[in-house]
Amino acid sequence: MITLTDGVTTLDLHPDLRWSDEDNWHPVAQTVERTLTGALDIQVAALQAGRPITLEPEDDGSAWVPASAVAQLRNWAAVPGQQLLLTLRNVSHTVLFRHQDGGLEARPVVHYRDRVAEDWFLVTIRLMEI
What is the pTM of this model? Predict the structure, then answer.
């Protein structure tokens, strides 16, 4: 089960959403510069926050979410600095939307002229751990 909560409202997300960038996180930052003498100035540090957590369907046939969930995600994404608690694989992460990367993307599985609560969507949720 995957859940997102703001402490008041809890949203159950489709369990087949996958954490697509889970194995691409590098918790070490490094800069390398040459000094005027030609020596290397190397600075290395552990990153303390900012791990990306992108939740998305494997393909167009999986992990559909209802319009009501999309509405709640949009409401949260519209609040600057909204902190949420993501529970994924029984591990909790305090997260924010990654607005610089688009934050939330949603598209209907089937486009209908009149949207109703029973419509299904494919979502990509871009978060970062804080």
Answer: 0.88
